[in-house]
Amino acid sequence: MSGPDGKPARVGIVGLGYVGLPLAVAFAEEGHEIVGVDTDARLVAAIEAGESHIEDVPSERLRAVAARISATTDYARLSDCDAVLIAVPTPLTRNREPDLGPLLSAGTELGSVLHAGQLVVLESTTYPGTTRERLVPLLEESGLAAGRDFNVAFSPERVDPGRTDHTLRTTPKIVGGLTPDCLDRAVALYELVCDHIVPVSAPEPAELAKLLENVFRSVNIALVNELAMLCDRMGIDIWEVVDAAATKPYGFMRFDPGPGMGGHCLPVDPFYLSWRAREYGQPTEFVELAGEVNQRMPEFCVARIARALNDQAKPVRGSRVAIFGVSYQAGVGDLRESPALRIAHMLADQGAVLAYHDDYVPELPELDLTAESVDVVLDGADVAVIVTAHRGLDVEAIVRSAPLVVDFRGVTRGIEANNLVRL
Ligand SMILES: NC(=O)c1ccc[n+]([C@@H]2O[C@H](COP(=O)([O-])OP(=O)(O)OC[C@H]3O[C@@H](n4cnc5c(N)ncnc54)[C@H](O)[C@@H]3O)[C@@H](O)[C@H]2O)c1
Q1: Which residues make Cβ contacts (< 8 Å) with residue 208, sequence separation at least 6?
Q2: What ligand 1 atom has the least distance to the C-alpha of 54?
């Protein structure tokens, strides 16, 4: 899809976070004009100044296309866009039910500026039916009819922050349109930035495909985490088990154990599915059980740290704990649902004295901590705990310097030392 007369397309992007900003830059790098709308005025000002807050988009890359990206808090600026992509958060309420607040607010705002001929695509992860039942009615408040006066589609985002081997261009993009015309327009749009488009028959299969992908990971991570807890009891090395099983050339896919799931997706999305499933009287037991097992991991980790300290005749209370990596995964500074935070809070509640090292997270205000250098956190530490291993972490040096090391990521495999405990 291009703009009128084959000119570059004018693409609006609502929500300039981990999903929206990389999308904006990808379209801009292909020569298209971007209007990015975000409710966070500070973020908008930073993007306008060429400052990126997303690790996958270094500021230099943003600045290189600055002339084609304009960020604003004003939805009215979307009125002359050919297409508008929505990438706002879809979090959970306190009761762990879908919170469509940001999405409904974006839909209402967009409905008030929508013009005939525009294409609207929802990219936020959500339960099947959201695009048709929740977004379309808000857009139709404009007086225009979806499928006739404007087009609507759902296309889930598959970005994995920090990953470099698969990009927006090389990762197949699923698209489901409200009508065949909606699909054609959305496919034409994404062909500008993606090599391979996967059309499906409607928005609902596209919405559910994204949830299937994330539930699949959640279930498999829960399975290997459950085995890790069993291995701990049985005195078997879970990493050796996974390494061995992963040699099977078919019928097995490797998942590694860890301290629990974090980020905006895996701990959240399964609840969108199970909530929707309740409406149909169909229990999603696998989905919920996986969430429960993964939620238990941080507690298991704290118990494992306490046991390791105990073996050295030290209580948790008063022990100095050096935490390595507090973001939810390597290579990003995203703290959302990070198991490291739960581990840190539980240790603090038990009286441990905490310090942490994380190149991506300068401070943890809720724990009143600021990041320290490796040397400073290790100085006087009773135990070093590797929760998230960012690239470049010198684990050998940590094992050499700390009296005790607990590794929840398996990055010390290959090192034999008496002071080393692995998940
Ligand atoms: N982060 C990921 O790895 C990832 C991967 C795939 C899919 N997703 C999904 O994509 C969606 C966005 O996630 P994200 O990680 O980019 O979130 P994010 O929090 O990084 O970014 C969302 C942005 O939307 C803005 N926003 C909130 N309400 C708004 C509104 N009403 N109007 C305009 N802007 C608004 C926020 O200020 C924020 O900057 C979610 O549904 C998420 O599940 C995320």
Answers
A1: 128, 273
A2: 20
Q: From the candidates 194, 231, 265, 301, which is the catalytic residue?
A: 265
Predicted confidence band of residue 412 (pLDDT cuts 50, 70, 90): very high
Task: Using the predicted structure, report yes or no on whether residue 2 has a pLDDT greater than 80.
Answer: no
161 lines ligand 1 (CB under 6 A): yes
pLDDT, tens digit, for every residue of 319-365? 999 999 999 999 999 999 999 999 999 999 999 999 999 999 999 99
**Pocket lining: 18 vs ligand 1, CB cutoff 6 Å:** yes
Distance CA 220, CA 405 (A): 27
Provide DSSP, 319-368.
-EEEEE--SSSTT----TT-HHHHHHHHHHHTT-EEEEE-TT--EEGGGT
Helix (H) or strand (E) segment spanning residue 407:
strand 405-407
54 lines ligand 1 (CB under 6 A): no
Whether 21 lines ligand 1, by a CB cut-off of 6 Å, is no
The enclosing H or E element of 286 equals helix 285-311
Q: Which DSSP state fits 76?
A: G
Ligand 1 centroid–CA 89 distance in Å is 4
Tokens of 145: 């009819």
Which atom of ligand 1 is closest in space to residue 159's alpha carbon? 5
Query: What is the torsion angle, in degrees rounded to the nearest 10, for the CA atoms of residue 376, residue 379, residue 383 and residue 389?
Result: 30
The model's pTM is 0.92
Atom of ligand 1 at shortest range from CA of 88: 24
Give the torsion through C-alpha atoms of 89, 93, 97, 99, to 10 deg. -40
The H or E element that residue 38 is part of is none
Q: Which of 110, 118, 86 is nearest to 15 (CA)?
A: 86
Q: How far is the CA of 187 from the centre of ligand 1 (A)?
A: 22
**How many CA atoms lie less than 13 Å away from 301 in the CB half-sphere?**
32
